[in-house]
Amino acid sequence: MHSKDEPKHADTEADESKSSYATASTASTATAAAAVTGKFPHPPFPEIYFGGCCWGAAFYIGAYRWLWETYGPHMTENGLCFTGDSAGSVVALFMGAGMHPDKLERIYKSVGERSAATQPWYNATQHTGSSVYTVEVIKAEVLDCDPQAYQKLQGKFYCGSTEYFDRHRWHTSWASNADLLDTLRGSIHIPFYCHSQAGPLCGSNCVDGAYGFAGADLLYGDRTLFIGIDPHAEVTRSFTNAEMLYPALGEECVNQANNKCTKMQ
User: Distances from the Cα of 218 to the Cαs of 105, 115, 116, 160, 235, in angstroms?
Assistant: First the structure.
């Protein structure tokens, strides 16, 4: 467990031994004892990490909905940071920007329907696929709305990438919105499934951030609430490969996006 409040330095490999994870019940106990500002309590954890699960990310919307209703719409103003790798980095970005869970659900549905109508993997001839549509929505909903978005997100959102071959690294600051977008494209980059990177990220080739991630890489160690498909995560569920490679549509999407993850309670 880290005794300090600041995260480990960005873009460095974690050198600590793998920590034991705090349980969801511990988080609930801490919530009850937390100081209350107005209507909502302070989150009992400084970081929420969303792991990679590709299209299983609809499950993250339900988790976020519970967090929103429990800790309020201004969680990041109370010291909470959203972090993630792969698909988790995209939802963490929207959460760090303060997006309402209903809007996040609509975005997932829209990108999912577009991807299903073409094919979710990248088509170089047509320039279609889920990675193309994901980049478009990141620009439309966050980056194109505010030229200073990259600065306003610092301290509220971090994402990871894997320096080829398997070295995980964190990105906690950016020089511009374009730099932030390039980082996100690196974090979600699954070769052949996604649109290729425009070039090296931070001076080296990279692949999907979840590929090189290990428990010891969490910025705040066992003070982190880990949400993902990893069996060590406090809030977890399993998906088949098909469920991760293809978007959840219709009733299945609604069920996942509105499941408030009772394990968190």
Answer: 26, 31, 33, 10, 15
pTM for this model (two decimals) = 0.82
What SS3 state is found at 17?
Answer: coil
Return the ∠ at Cα 248 (arms to 51 and 88), rounded to 5°: 15
Q: What are the residues facing 235 on neighbouring strands?
A: 227
| Backbone torsions φ then ψ of 28, nearest 5 degrees | -65, -40
CA distance 85 to 253: 21
Kindly report, residue by residue over 43-73, the tens digit of the pLDDT: 999 999 999 999 999 999 999 999 999 999 9
Give the confidence band of 206 by pLDDT, cuts at 50, 70, 90. confident
Residue type at 42 in one-letter notation: H
Q: What is the DSSP string of 126-166?
A: TTBSHHHHHHHHHIIIIITT-TTHHHHTTTTEEEEEEETTT
Rounded CA-CA distance 134/148 in Å is: 20
Q: Does residue 33 register a pLDDT over 80?
A: no
DSSP assignment of 71-116 = H-TTGGGGT-EEEESTHHHHHHHHHHTT--HHHHHHHHHHHHHHHH
CA distance 107 to 101: 10
Using alpha carbons, select from 173, 147, 148, 168 the residue that is nearest to residue 158: 173
Residue 66 burial (CB count, 10 A): 18
- Nearest to 235, CA basis, from 8, 13, 23, 18: 23
Tell me which of 39 and 30 has the higher pLDDT.
39
